[in-house]
Amino acid sequence: DAPKPLAGKKVLVTAGGTVERIDPVRYITNDSSGKMGFAIAEEAKEMGAHVTVVAANTSAAVPAGVGVVRVESTQNMLDAVLARFAETDIVIKAAAPADYRPAHRSEQKIKKKDETMTLELVKNPDIIETLGKLKTNQFTIGFAAETNDGERYAMEKLNKKNCDLLVLNDVTMAGAGFGTDTNIVKIFDAGGLVVSLPQLSKREVARRLLEIAAERLEGRGGSE
Ligand code: PMT
């Protein structure tokens, strides 16, 4: 049998786009299909890990053999992640949580009235930034979905969110980002670029990413 680099490790993956309700029939979300997160979950399981996925809105098939916790909003996702964080070795935030939610959620369907209407939004908590402040020995991996100045924003996010690794995808590139079966990523750590990968299946991206994480976790040994 092939060696299992994540044997005995607990891996928590987030996937999909969170949903922020406006009224009983309307909501705000984004194009995340869950494919990237589910590919990571499947590969982590293959590498021997015990895997839980916290999944928001997804269209992709859920991989077999991993636990799935369904959530709706960014706040729900934060709660589900926090509830499991202490016992987790590696957290991978492939989800696309909504950064803002409606300030008021109407209990009744909002009626059509004036020519214009304004929806007031308030900021959601940042899940991985919250983890970055709380973490003890957890290995945290963030993503950055960017359309411009990717490397600069990736390094800013890595530092601000205190991630061990950050995966940048330029979502304007064909074959990368939302909804596709492939991705084109650059992986960063605090020292800068670790590796720039060509267009690969999301499963292969997952494998390369998890190999780096496993190697670094191994390198920490029992010293923490
Ligand atoms: O699901 P797919 O269709 O396969 O698409 C994959 C993907 C494009 C969604 C994925 O590869 C990806 O880039 N996920 C991150 C999307 C995102 O929210 O990027 P961001 O740059 O806005 O956020 C940076 C990081 O902070 C991400 O790890 C994100 O999960 C996290 N975050 C963001 C907002 C928030 N409120 N809490 C968070 O934890």
Tell me what the structure shows.
The protein is α/β, with parallel strands linked by helices and 224 residues long. It has one domain (10-103, 120-218): CoaB-like (Rossmann fold, 3-Layer(aba) Sandwich), CATH 3.40.50.10300. The protein contains 5 helices and 14 strands. Strands 5-4-1-6-9-10-12-13 form an 8-stranded mixed sheet, sandwiched between helices. A hairpin with a 2-residue loop joins strand 12 and strand 13 (192-196). Helix 1 crosses helix 5. The longest helix has 19 residues, at 202-220. The structure holds ligand PMT. The site of ligand PMT has 26 residues, from helix 1, helix 3 and strand 9.
Q: How many angstroms separate the termini? A: 30 Å
**CATH fold description:** Rossmann fold
Strand content: 25-35%
How many helices in DSSP terms? 5
Choose one word for the global shape. Answer: globular
Instruction: Give unreliable regions as ranges.
Output: none
Give the bound compounds: ligand PMT
Main β-sheet description: 8 strands, mixed
- Listing every helix as H and every strand as E from the N terminus to the C terminus, the arrangement reads EEEHEEHEEEHEHEEEEEH
CATH superfamily: CoaB-like
Q: Which CATH architecture is right?
A: 3-Layer(aba) Sandwich
Summarize the structure.
This protein has 224 residues and is α/β, with parallel strands linked by helices.
